[in-house]
Amino acid sequence: MRWVALLWCLASPLAAQEQAQEAARQLQAANARLEAADTARDRIRALTETVQAYEAGLIAMRDGLRQITVQETEISDKLAEDREDLARLLGVLSSISKTPDPVILSHPQGARNAARAGMLTTDMTLALEEQVDALREQLRMAQSLRAARADATNMLQEGLVGAQEARVALGQAVSDRVTLPRRFEQDPVQTALLVASAQTLADFAAELTSATPSPENTLTASGDLPLPVAGIVLPDQDPNLPGIHVGAAPQALVSTPVDATILFEGPLLNYGTVVILEPTAGVLFIFAGLGTVFVQPGEIVSADAPIGLLGGAASDVDGILTENDASNAGQAQQVLYLEVRDRQSAVSPDAWFALE
């Protein structure tokens, strides 16, 4: 658990202790569950939680490393700006240190002026000492931040490797698992005909629901479901689309927020790879933009079950630090399109999901 220990150490100087502690707890719980997993299904759940814990930890780690870099840059810039003043300060201190005490205590205009000069020298020395202490503190902070940044960089690299290994293990576990419970068997020919004849996503969804049996479970919209991927809701990408776009890291895990049946999986129109879930009769959750899919039509999946991964290549440390730069915008971030349909009509996703 070296990675967890380093995360705790990093959290304190960045005032992100609660976020880092929660990420560490998630990672510890996921690893403990992974060690205790016996069956294939348990292993899939444990690996899913492990990937989610890594992603939560990496988000905290990215924020921490960026804060360290910003603070270090601000201190370095401040020291560079004050270079002339620092040189002048060091010159004065050097001059005072080389002046013999009898010379400091003497004055050509008499003892009274010598006393005044001594008092001024004392005041000046105290002020200089304060500046020296401030400079010493800045240098100490710069050294501390430099060391913290090196540790955080190593930490982030270990986390990225661990997350990727967990994703690979999850994909293998999904491939090795026994078939999930099924509500229906897909007719490949009929599905292919529906895809070929689809003009819009709405038409395809309507035809798809009419061609498959409805689930028996009931579920009502409460607006508190978690997003299917760890990310942020982006500003409207296309005003003609009723859904939302969620920006997330490359290869981020996409999971189902509730028990549902997989109605469709595959490329559709210009949406890329699409997965359509039916959590309750007449309601569809549509996920588009996946790079890897773990499910098949007809399968019944439980809440938090892995659906797939977003596309893209996993970022390295340098890419993470620059992925928000204007020159690098859009190169690292992946986007999941989420649309909700109820009784063949598009509804606002915030009726079901907690978008804030």
Q: Brief overview, please?
A:
The protein is of the alpha+beta class. The protein has helices at 2-11, 17-36, 40-81, 83-98, 101-105, 111-176, 188-197, 201-210, 317-322; strands at 231-233, 244-248, 253-255, 260-267, 273-280, 283-293, 300-301, 306-310, 334-342, 345-347.
Set out the fold topology.
Layout: H1 2-11, H2 17-36, H3 40-81, H4 83-98, H5 101-105, H6 111-176, H7 188-197, H8 201-210, E1 231-233, E2 244-248, E3 253-255, E4 260-267, E5 273-280, E6 283-293, E7 300-301, E8 306-310, H9 317-322, E9 334-342, E10 345-347
Antiparallel strand pairs: 1-2, 2-9, 3-8, 4-5, 4-7, 5-6, 6-8, 6-9, 9-10
If you had to describe this structure to a student in words, what would you say it looks like?
The chain is an alpha+beta fold and 356 residues long. It has 2 domains: 1-178, no CATH class; 188-351, Glucose Permease (Domain IIA) (Distorted Sandwich), CATH 2.70.70. The protein has helices spanning 2-11, 17-36, 40-81, 83-98, 101-105, 111-176, 188-197, 201-210, 317-322, and strands at residues 231-233, 244-248, 253-255, 260-267, 273-280, 283-293, 300-301, 306-310, 334-342, 345-347. Strands 1, 2, 3, 4, 5, 6, 7, 8, 9 and 10 form a 10-stranded antiparallel sheet that branches. Strand 9 (334-342) and strand 10 form a beta hairpin. Helix 1 packs antiparallel against helix 2, helix 1 packs antiparallel against helix 6 (111-176) and helix 2 (17-36) runs antiparallel to helix 3. The longest helix is centred in the middle third of the chain and has 66 residues, at 111-176. It is elongated, with a radius of gyration of 30 Å. The model is unreliable at 1-14 and 324-331 (pLDDT under 50).
